[in-house]
Design goal:
Arc Repressor Mutant, subunit A; Homeodomain-like_sf; mainly alpha; 2% strand; DNA-binding transcription factor activity, RNA polymerase II-specific; 11 helices; elongated; homeobox; RNA polymerase II cis-regulatory region sequence-specific DNA binding; KN_HD
């Protein structure tokens, strides 16, 4: 009998996942030596195998009963959503974008794969407040300000540019036809973070 090290098992899993050899992965998962290693990577492999075989309850159980390192949260959130999408798809057929939105609202991420920070329109509240503050100072940020915002918010350059473009458009729409005597209202509109 061949005994693999943890690193060797990780490499084997990675190769089998890339080649979509889920039968071989399943065999490996039930082996005794695989069970000796319980870390996030091996649990993630188990989740992917269960998802492949449409074993959704096992996917949910594994995700909800282990605190994962934050570096895996995004991938696990995608797997959580995908499991729910597939489960609903077997019942209702093809899912539309609105269906997926409703499913995500109905099945929020468990605390094991979510940092607890609220989101609004896909942007974390803290990031939104930071962008609004920057918008109050300058509606057209310089390149260096954009680079700084990218680093501070973990958003891409395109996301920053789009956010400012959309914010300027909403700001113009709200202020269209107003006169200068409405200064108090203008200040209120600038501070979206209070709402």
């Amino acid at each position: 009998m061949v005994v693999f090290t943890k690193e060797q098992l990780m490499c084997i899993c990675e190769v089998l996942l890339k080649e979509c050899k889920y039968d071989k992965l399943r065999e490996l998962l039930v082996s005794n030596e695989f069970r000796t290693y319980e870390n996030d990577i091996f649990v993630l492999v188990r989740i992917k195998v269960h998802l492949h075989y449409s074993e959704y309850d096992s996917v949910y159980h594994l995700i909800m009963n282990r605190l994962f390192n934050k570096c895996y949260h995004k991938e696990l959130q995608m797997l959580w959503d995908e499991a729910h999408y597939r489960q609903y798809q077997t019942k209702k057929g093809l899912l539309m974008t609105t269906d997926k939105f409703r499913i995500r609202k109905k099945h929020p991420y468990p605390a094991t794969i979510w940092d607890g920070e609220g989101e609004s329109y896909g942007v974390k509240v803290r990031v939104r407040m930071q962008l609004n503050k920057s918008f109050q100072m300058n509606h057209y940020p310089t390149e260096s300000e954009k680079v700084r915002l990218c680093k501070e918010t973990s958003l891409t350059r395109v996301q920053i540019n789009n956010w400012f473009k959309n914010k300027r458009q909403r700001f113009k729409t709200k202020n269209f036809g107003k006169n200068d005597s409405d200064e108090d209202d203008d200040l209120e509109m600038l501070d979206d973070s209070r709402k």
